[in-house]
Design a protein that fits this description.
- There is one protein chain.
- This protein is 21% helix and 24% strand.
- With 136 residues, the chain is α/β, with parallel strands linked by helices.
- It has a single domain, classed as Hypothetical Protein Ychn, Chain: A (3-Layer(aba) Sandwich).
- Strands 6-3-2-1-7 form a five-stranded parallel β-sheet.
- α1 (21-34) links the parallel β1 and β2 (38-43).
Length: 136
């Protein structure tokens, strides 16, 4: 565990727009990361839509905050877990998701993907290994 910091997992289950949950989760993640918390995110159920590419919110009159996910690596947030079954149940694949990367300082700053596609059982294990799980 990094610096004996507690591990925080933010679980995102809601679609990106129509409620405040997705934006609130992202804001709390950025605040936690700014205070050097060990932060990771999980995307399940309709939460997988938060990471899809090409979001256009013009028709609903709200700000498109999806590009902000690509900045997470700058805050050392590089563990994004997406549940494979949730993608499949919604007719999505990894190709439908934004490319979100981080620079690995331990590997000569090589750019690496932040998104990890995991099975439902792997997601359960990830959740069980956290100190704090916050659900949005």
């Amino acid at each position: 565990m990094e610096n004996d910091a507690k591990r925080f997992l933010y679980v995102n289950r809601k679609a990106p727009y129509g409620t405040i949950y997705a934006l609130e989760s992202l804001e709390v993640v950025l605040i936690g990361a700014a205070f050097e918390q060990n932060v990771s995110l999980a995307f399940l159920d309709d939460g997988v839509f938060q990471l899809t590419k090409g979001q256009d919110t013009q028709g609903i009159g709200v700000k498109n905050f999806s590009p902000t996910y690509r900045a997470l690596g700058d805050y050392d947030v590089n563990k994004l877990y997406v549940e494979k079954e949730s993608l499949e149940e919604r007719g999505l694949s990894v190709d439908d998701l934004q490319e979100i990367t981080y620079e690995d300082e331990d590997d000569d700053w090589e750019e690496k993907p932040s998104i990890n596609i995991v099975s439902r059982s792997e997601m359960a294990d990830i959740m069980a290994n956290q100190d704090v799980v916050l659900s949005f």
